[in-house]
Amino acid sequence: MTLRHIVTWKLSGESREARDVQAAEIAAALEPLIDSVPSVRALSVHRNELFDGDNWDVTLVADFDDAEGLAAYATHPEHRAAGAIIKAHAVGRVATDFIV
Asked: Could you tell me the CATH number of the domain that includes residue 93?
């Protein structure tokens, strides 16, 4: 069993270029968590490619063994630090978790 955690953010930047910079900062904060949070099985961050302004801007896809692994990730100090960076840039968040 794998628990897939997907989170998408709408960013505050007023231009595509500003949102690109914000998305890069978010990716730089999240991507190292694959190595520092033991419960993370897979993790990737993706910048929206199409329909800029209509679609949301950046998406995290992360896999865990179970809900306990996701909870450990959520409370990990390095994840909390990444969350502070995301909160500085995001104006909206949507998430879903499901078994694959």
From this structure: 3.30.70.100
